[in-house]
Amino acid sequence: LGKAQLADALADAIGRLPPREAMVLQLYFVEEMNLDEIGETLGVGAARVCQIKKAALDKVRGMMS
Q1: Which among 41, 13, 60 has a CA at the least distance from the CA of 49?
Q2: Mean pLDDT across 1-24
Q3: In principle, which of 9, 25, 37, 48 could form an S-S bond with 33, CB 3.0–4.6 Å?
């Protein structure tokens, strides 16, 4: 895959995630917020944010393979 195709596939995979998981990835990778900051935004603890991020990344990896 070329860079553009990879970016499109990644955007598509993230778009198919539940909204909360997509938001965690957006805040973490695009907004460059840390887990504590994301937790404050979502009203959950950093440990829960970590769980949501891992679940989202696992799903994206599955969709990309």
Answers
A1: 41
A2: 92
A3: 37
> Dihedral sign, CA of 8, 47, 20, 31?
negative
User: What does the block give as tokens for 5?
Assistant: 């195709």
At position 6, the amino acid (one-letter code) is L
Structure tokens that stand for 27 in this block: 């805040």
CA distance 36 to 13: 25
Write a three-state SS string for the chain.
CCHHHHHHHHHHHHHCCCHHHHHHHHHHHHCCCCHHHHHHHHCCCHHHHHHHHHHHHHHHHHHHC
- When pLDDT is cut at 50, 70 and 90, the band that residue 1 belongs to is low
